[in-house]
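thread: overnight batch results

M.L. [08:02]
morning all. the overnight job finished for the chain we discussed friday. pasting input first so we're all looking at the same thing
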Amino acid sequence: MSPRLLVIFAVSAALLRAAAPSDVAVSLYKSKQYPEARAAFEQITVTDPANAAAHSYLGLLAMKRNDIDESIKQLEQATILAPTNSDYFMDLGDAYGAAAGKAGLFSQLGLAKKCQAALEKAVQLNPDNLLARNGLVSYYRQAPTFAGGGMSKAYEQAAEIKKRDPVMGADVYGALYVKDKKFEDAFAVFENLLRTHPDNYLALYSIGRTAAQSGLRLDRGEQALRRCLDLTPAKNEPGHAAVHWRLGVIAEKRQDSAAARVAYETSLKLDPEFKLAADSLAKLK
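M.L. [08:03]
and the structure it wrote out:
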């Protein structure tokens, strides 16, 4: 065993004596100490093989290191041990979706259908699981009809999301309108949201995103994105690195390569791992 792993197990053992195992492991996960968290959760499954939460976290950790097969294995076990937990089925659906994206044509359809079934099960177990519903929106709008996809199904889920969360619903509807190239409808959804939720970060970002994608209303898109830079995004919202990347795309559509370069470089300073900005900058050179 490597010295690093010995240290990890020693730290985990000391912590496990001081607090409940799940609390310690979850704390390590939340603080992004992923190798230590993995060791802690693995130890839990040794002493308590039926601990569904531990298997769930091991699945999430496997996904972070791009070990999709291991992620599916752990998350499948979590759903077996806790068959009424909506979140576990949602995460399993995401893992199947990731596997389908990398699979060959022969295996792709089967994995896609498993993704759909898991996400639908998550929504069945908890109709208020909006992340699972949003996952279904993404699935339905991308999958062909023979694999259970379809824009009508996506819009049905968007309507259910909007009932429960008008802000999230607006973003989902806007994305669907963009997919259908109904750009003016997308702008209208986001602008309407701003009337009731001034300075809503996601609505502003979505206006900028739609402008960058469509090439329409570029001035308004830039204005909205620059306002985002004055605000703080929520945990699950696109960060300022993404904002600068979108500003770069808008600059390119104006054929302003110098401004685009500055925007992409600024994006990468904020997040050196932001592949979209890196790719855009590489193409610009």
